[in-house]
């Protein structure tokens, strides 16, 4: 629950996924979603709650995490949890069912460090899409993404008694030779008790251009980057993502790279 409260915004993300799909396939309403590296399965849960016709497949390789997610969403969305299928497996092993949207969020695709691995994953994803389908992944970058340090903010975990927690994002090390970054998430309670290295990540920071090129090599018909607009006067993003020809040029940014498969 700490992770979900700290870094996930599932309702906004599924609305975005639907909007992206309908941008490329006007007039078509997507109903089938596959969530790779699903973790808490928050995206899948929010997806089925968005429309009564929606169904989701969530794939998570870690068994304890999948068990937690299954129990949580069964309580959270009750009978609609029957419309979320959770599989404990490597995403590369799951070929069916074909869906309209495959989503890899929370920078999960960055676990692939080589082009061979990443292109193989993109090819697999494309095979899992229906003739009119999209793959959506998020990525972060900017000068700040390569700097060692810790950022923190206060957060509240909803529940019977709202729990106040300090969330810490640590970029522990960065290797410019291979673009690999070691990131950690820590939590601290009001009483000073700390949960150190709650989540650890060994990622490669791919460029937007490289990701697009690899999607095309993998067989996607098109690939676009969706970016937000940063307002320098107020010092924050407008939060609205759309296709962009000019990519972000600021200290820190998050973008989405979309692969499009047309029938």
Automatic annotation (TrEMBL):
Name the UniProt record assigns to this protein: Class I SAM-dependent methyltransferase
InterPro entries: SAM-dependent_MTases_sf
SUPFAM superfamilies reported for this sequence: S-adenosyl-L-methionine-dependent methyltransferases (SSF53335)
Annotated Gene3D superfamilies: S-adenosyl-L-methionine-dependent methyltransferases, Vaccinia Virus protein VP39
Species whose genome carries this gene: Poriferisphaera corsica
């Amino acid at each position: 629950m700490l992770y979900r409260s700290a870094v996930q915004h599932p309702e906004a993300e599924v609305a975005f996924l639907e909007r992206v799909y309908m941008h490329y396939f006007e007039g078509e309403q997507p109903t089938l979603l596959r969530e790779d590296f699903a973790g808490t399965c928050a995206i899948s849960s929010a997806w089925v709650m968005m429309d009564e016709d929606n169904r989701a497949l969530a794939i998570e390789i870690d068994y304890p995490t999948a068990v937690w997610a299954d129990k949580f969403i069964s309580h959270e969305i009750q009978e609609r949890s029957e419309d979320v299928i959770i599989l404990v497996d490597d995403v590369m092993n799951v070929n069916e069912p074909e869906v309209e949207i495959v989503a890899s969020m929370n920078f999960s695709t960055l676990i692939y460090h080589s082009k061979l691995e990443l292109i193989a994953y993109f090819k697999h994803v494309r095979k899992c899409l229906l003739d009119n389908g999209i793959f959506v992944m998020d990525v972060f970058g900017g000068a700040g993404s390569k700097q060692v340090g810790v950022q923190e903010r206060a957060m509240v975990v909803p529940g019977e008694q709202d729990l106040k927690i300090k969330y810490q994002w640590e970029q522990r090390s960065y290797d410019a030779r291979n673009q690999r970054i070691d990131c950690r998430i820590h939590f601290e309670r009001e009483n000073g008790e700390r949960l150190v290295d709650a989540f650890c990540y060994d990622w490669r920071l791919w460029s937007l251009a490289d990701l697009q090129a690899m999607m095309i090599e993998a067989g996607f018909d098109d690939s676009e980057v969706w970016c937000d607009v940063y307002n320098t006067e107020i010092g924050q993003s407008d939060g609205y993502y759309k296709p962009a020809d000019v990519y972000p040029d600021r200290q820190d940014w998050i973008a989405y790279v979309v692969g499009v498969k047309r029938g």
